[in-house]
């Protein structure tokens, strides 16, 4: 029996029933830009960077199920321009100062911006005031850099079973909140070995005292594009899930 | 011989690192001198553009009234204006003061901070007034191109100038785009 197939940018991609477009694309070695998606977790569909055109309509590839005969557009000038604009909006909404951030070079927001050819942020900056939480002996929470991908929320809830994080507030007042009576990280059961501390795509959750073990210029996205790195990391995860 | 490209540069709220990086093009500056002439710049010590220039490079963000004045005057003289480096593009490290009220910043720096002697907030009439926030230059004037980096490497600056001198549309290859 032939496996169901759809097209991405004219190239046929076979998939397993139940896979999303993102999963099928990753398994086929096709990179679709994304930030809030990580194949280890249930999709969130919030960052919209993975927007693709499915039979002429914009959809999030991380949540949209693959179907036989679909025509998907991914790597087009129009979609990449849209993705760059979304990335610019993420930059102006927070306080993303790459030169002073210890995640620089390992940051997926920065790497996505490189990939999309972003050289400026275009929009006026918000410069919001966001609270830093340095209370925990091993973990730093720098909300300036949070992009509300909710990966830490999902990891803490679904893998660590601790429910340490949540997104509170709405719209521009959204913020990453910590589930303890004081609201401080030190008063939660989180540990530096938890999954929730390892999934942040930006520099919002950092393990203390490891920031500069690898010098700037020799880091992951100094050496590889996010397309290369992401496919290499995520393809085995998708394969393990769907076989 | 064809008219030489005229270049002006200025530094606003920056650290001069971008100008230093420009000088890191090393001996390539000789090739540049063949096709370009410098007008206003800290490198020539010319204080105001003598005429219209083809290309203006701006380092640093906008943190006080003098920066606004300088930037607007500079823009009027430049056919193409380029934001060079993190501070010109997003305000850079000086924007760390933006989420904090200006009065609070001044009090901490000049009155209440640890180790402050003879505490007083500077108010000499010669001093340009601080803006309540530090701004990237695109919030004040129109910007044609941006060269990211802290600083952008000499190779980034060279790639841009080479494209422009050759009469092409400047575009940075992906591997030259860095924000740190």
Automatic annotation (TrEMBL), chain A:
GO CC term, one of those recorded: membrane
Translocase recorded as keyword: yes
Predominant cellular place of this UniProt entry's protein: membrane
Domain 4Fe-4S His(Cys)3-ligated-type span(s) in chain numbering: 78-117
Cofactor(s) this protein requires: [2Fe-2S] cluster; [4Fe-4S] cluster
Domain of life: Bacteria
One BP term from GO: ATP synthesis coupled electron transport
Localization per Swiss-Prot or TrEMBL: Membrane
Sample GO molecular function, one term: 2 iron, 2 sulfur cluster binding
Pfam families referenced in this protein's UniProt entry, alphabetically: Fer2_4, Fer4_15, NADH-G_4Fe-4S_3
Keywords: 2Fe-2S, 4Fe-4S, Iron, Iron-sulfur, Membrane, Metal-binding, NAD, Oxidoreductase, Translocase
Gene3D superfamilies in UniProt: 3.10.20.740, 3.30.70.20
Residues in 2Fe-2S ferredoxin-type domain copies: 2-78
Quaternary structure and interacting proteins, as annotated: Composed of 13 different subunits. Subunits NuoCD, E, F, and G constitute the peripheral sector of the complex.
Family: Belongs to the complex I 75 kDa subunit family.
Protein name: NADH-quinone oxidoreductase subunit G
Species whose genome carries this gene: Methylococcus capsulatus
Top-level taxonomy: Bacteria, Pseudomonadati, Pseudomonadota, Gammaproteobacteria, Methylococcales
Automatic annotation (TrEMBL), chain B:
Broad enzyme group: oxidoreductase
GO function terms (MF aspect): 3 iron, 4 sulfur cluster binding; hydrogen dehydrogenase activity
Annotated keywords: 3Fe-4S, Iron, Iron-sulfur, Metal-binding, Oxidoreductase
Co-factor(s): [3Fe-4S] cluster
EC number: 1.12.1.2
Annotated NADH:ubiquinone oxidoreductase-like 20kDa subunit domain residues: 15-163
InterPro entries: Hydrogenase_assoc-protein (IPR051349), NADH_UbQ_OxRdtase-like_20kDa (IPR006137), NiFe_Hase_small_N_sf (IPR037024)
Pfam families to which the protein is assigned, alphabetical: Oxidored_q6
Domain of life: Bacteria
SUPFAM superfamilies: HydA/Nqo6-like
PANTHER family assigned: COENZYME F420-REDUCING HYDROGENASE, GAMMA SUBUNIT (PTHR42845), HYDROGENASE SMALL SUBUNIT (PTHR42845:SF1)
Protein name per Swiss-Prot or TrEMBL: NAD-reducing hydrogenase HoxS subunit delta
Species name: Methylococcus capsulatus
